Amino acid sequence: METIKYITIFYIITCLPYAITTNTQRATKFDLLIYTQQWPATTCKEWKKNDPSHTCSMPKNVDSWTIHGIWPTKLGSMGPAFCNRTWLFDPEKIRPIENQLSQVWINIFGGTSLYSLWAHEWNKHGTCAAVLEPLNSELKYFSFGIDLLQNFSMTNILQSENIVPSNTKEYSVVEINNAIKQKLGVDPAIECKKENGESYLAEIRICFTKDFKITNCDGIMTRKVVDYHSVLTNCNLSKKILYPHYKDKSFYVQIYKLISWLQWFTL
Ligand SMILES: *[C@@H]1O[C@H](CO)[C@@H](O)[C@H](O)[C@H]1NC(C)=O
Ligand SMILES: *[C@@H]1O[C@H](CO)[C@@H](O)[C@H](O)[C@H]1NC(C)=O
Ligand SMILES: *[C@@H]1O[C@H](CO)[C@@H](O)[C@H](O)[C@H]1NC(C)=O
């Protein structure tokens, strides 16, 4: 029950703007598809912040970007969402790609159902995206997410511009934005999470037209302008941000135990 409560709270916080607009606006039309990748180390940090007993399910390569979702969106507003309340996520439909999905579209929230992220993404966003023929089934929607990661993985894109995870070196959001723009030729949107006065790189969104051509994310919600650079972000532009490595606390706990044991042993 506790876990369900936390998931609910988490989704309410992260999806509140969507919830507000979808209640008043039932239209299912949209302009763009937002393809959102998440940085697992930051998602994990956020999940543990809610409750220190939380654990994370990390991808095998902990320093790789994973998929959050493909979100149909209207310019200047959020949503549509939940376009077909009777077309609910069915795990049987994604069986053929389940192993792959459980790495690249992984549910980071340890202890919660393997399917909870996929069910949420399909029920909320997939049912809306399904008006487009290439996305008109669960299998197609999730397969398309995997295909997009092969072409647009932020792991590769950022690395090729020398932006790599570090627990010490910080980056400016403009620098990250420009690296992506340099590589893809379009404006992305960059999301941060804040903790103890630090900002952490959390999500990068890139946008596609309804005929699947990459395009600027300009016009989607969250916009700030700095100097002559136009950067779509919720990050604080006057402060550098961390693009952290995943830190497994239990690893440090184990080292600590080992050292304690060695000290005792050598006394
Ligand atoms: C909603 O989904 C169900 C199940 O796939 C389908 O039969 C129905 O036609 C859909 N409704 C709309 C309005 O698309
Ligand atoms: C990925 O790139 C390949 C090769 O450039 C292209 O044929 C394919 O359409 C792309 N797929 C997506 C989903 O963008
Ligand atoms: C952004 O960062 C600057 C510099 O650390 C700080 O003075 C400012 O209050 C921050 N703004 C917000 C909205 O957090």
UniProtKB/TrEMBL annotation:
Its main location: endoplasmic reticulum. The active site is at H68, E121, H125. SUPFAM superfamilies: Ribonuclease Rh-like. GO terms for molecular function: hydrolase activity; ribonuclease T2 activity; RNA binding. It comes from the Eukaryota. It is found in: Endoplasmic reticulum lumen; Lysosome; Secreted. Keywords: Disulfide bond, Endonuclease, Endoplasmic reticulum, Glycoprotein, Hydrolase, Lyase, Lysosome, Nuclease, Secreted. One of its GO terms (cellular component) is extracellular region. The keyword Protein biosynthesis does not apply. Belongs to the RNase T2 family. This is Uncharacterized protein.
